[in-house]
Design goal:
about 30% strand; 5-stranded mixed sheet; single chain; 3 helices; YaeB-like fold; alpha+beta; about 110 residues
């Protein structure tokens, strides 16, 4: 049996994810587990504005919309670039810029 990919948290992403409400943490955790095990997460979209191969995990609950931006292609690990609560319909430029900066630091 193949071992799950290692998750690497970049910058403040681990602390930011820990601040999510329990239901959002549980859902994102299950989706990250799927990614670690080469399975499709249940709710994601590509984020080419951040970089090639970058994806965003999405979860929605009573306390709002929460997102985790990640990439798998580097060193066969899951790199979590950014975790945040989404406040508007469109992802803020600040969140995209932060994820893009962290992505560039890795490549």
């Amino acid at each position: 049996m193949k071992h799950p990919r290692t998750v690497v948290f970049v910058g403040s992403s681990r602390r930011d994810l820990r601040d999510f409400p329990e239901s959002a943490k549980d859902d994102i955790g299950q989706q990250l587990w799927a990614v670690q095990n080469d399975r499709e997460p249940k709710d994601w979209k590509p984020m080419p504005s951040v970089g090639p191969g970058v994806r965003e995990l999405r979860t929605q609950g009573a306390s709002g919309a929460f997102r985790v931006i990640y990439i798998v292609k580097i060193a066969d690990k899951v790199h979590v670039l950014h975790a945040f609560q989404k406040k508007t319909q469109q992802t803020s430029q600040r969140d995209i810029d932060l994820a893009r900066r962290r992505y560039r630091e890795m490549i």
